[in-house]
Amino acid sequence: MPKTSHATNWMPALGREGGPLYLAIAGAIAADIAAGRLKPGTRLPPQRALADALGIDFTTVTRAYAEAGKRGLVEGRVGHGTYVRLRQSLAVPGAGRAVDISMNLPPWFEDAALNARMQAGIQAAAGEGPSLLLAYQDPGGADGDRAAGAHWLQSRLPGVTGDRVAVCPGTQGALVASLKLLARPGDTVCVEALAYPGFLALAAHQGIRVQPVAMDENGLLPESFETACMGHQPRALYCTPTFHNPTIATMPLPRRRQLVEIARRHGVPIIEDDAYGALPRVPVPPLAALAPDCVYHIAGLSKCLSPALRIAYLVLPDARIQARAADAIRAFAGMASPLSAAIVTRWMEEGVADAVLAAIREETSARQAIAAGLLPAAKSDPECFHAWLPLPAGWTAGALASRARLHGIGLVTADVFATAKAPEAVRIGLGAPRTQGDLTHGLEILADLLQQGPGASSTIV
């Protein structure tokens, strides 16, 4: 057995340069190995512990370790953690080009004319000059931007008005504001048994307990939620009813009605994360459309327009809460970027946003067809750009992710989302690869690994 050292208190020295944080962490691993600060065989901190220490999302650390693995710097050992390689030449030779399917991004689309319209909208918004670029705005967003958000949401939330909308710095910002309004340290919030890691990290940072609620193939189980209401007196329920992340479950309308009836009866407000709500052409009505009086509806734009602009709309149950929501946004972020909000508003007014959404839908359908052909066991939907893959007998999620990394394939395992016992499954981000060819290459490798089985694909000697 190779000699290894105990887990370290290693922390990456991150500079102020731009670029993705996961690449900066992977670069810090490389630098510290080269400098001798990380010795061969040293165990790196557990991913969740490092994420908590840095105050970042768990998936960022997962992606950083995966990147370090692709560079041949570290290796994952199932059930034991991530270690600096004893020899840096141990990466599988000829593994081919790397394909990251760990991130849940909208797919790239090839449309030169639409790209030009997007660029023109960006330039026009920036051209508004000092009135936009050299001024602060109301932390809840300018009136025009809130009105644009309300108009964008009309098809899903009929009758919503701008005075109930707060413009937030991304979905994470809207979640921060919602939790600040609804819960205090020590309180309990119900969440799905598999939940968005960004919310779990936020709850941990704010000292809020999370109470898992059971799920099935149609999403959260109302009877489990009612049991939690009676036993734990939660301050709120957080859930993703449409294209749940990671399982892709969409809660049917009768179950949604049952859920809001229980929430009303127990006086528990709902935080509805509708990150994927714009993707279905014929959506199931959001919880906020069924119970606008008790639902805090978050409509992020990262999945349907652009992850880079970091804009989300928080639709509040009552216009009178808008000022309190603005105070919460001011406290943690000052405001959402006025430039980003202006770009989004211009795109919406000029029809660019609708065209981008249509292009994302079309590309998503094509990528889902690729996935269906190569991974028929995966749970998916033609309008959703991630898939959920329960693993065949003999495989563990950790073992598959470790083997996939050796072939340059990045995956996210179920334990990242788990608030209770994690199933043996992985989430596949179909939108992350740059092209359909890259996606096909990655899924072919993944399908081959699964067909071989965990024993046949082992590289341990």
Q: Can you lay out the helices and strands and say which pair or pack?
A:
Blueprint: H1 21-34, H2 47-54, H3 58-70, E1 74-77, E2 81-84, E3 99-100, H4 112-126, H5 130-133, H6 143-152, E4 165-168, H7 170-182, E5 188-192, H8 197-205, E6 209-213, E7 215-216, E8 219-220, H9 222-232, E9 236-239, H10 253-266, E10 270-273, H11 287-290, E11 295-300, E12 312-315, H12 322-333, H13 338-349, H14 352-374, E13 386-390, H15 397-406, E14 409-410, E15 412-413, E16 425-429, H16 436-456
Parallel strand pairs: 3-14, 5-6, 5-9, 9-10, 10-11
Antiparallel strand pairs: 1-2, 4-12, 7-8, 11-12, 13-16, 15-16
Helix pairs in contact: 1-3, 2-3, 4-13, 6-13, 7-8, 7-12, 9-10, 14-16, 15-16
Q: Could you list some keywords that capture this structure?
A:
461 residues; alpha/beta; Arc Repressor Mutant, subunit A; Aspartate Aminotransferase, domain 1; Aspartate Aminotransferase, domain 2; 3 domains; seven-stranded mixed β-sheet; three-stranded antiparallel β-sheet; 16 helices; 16 strands; 13% strand
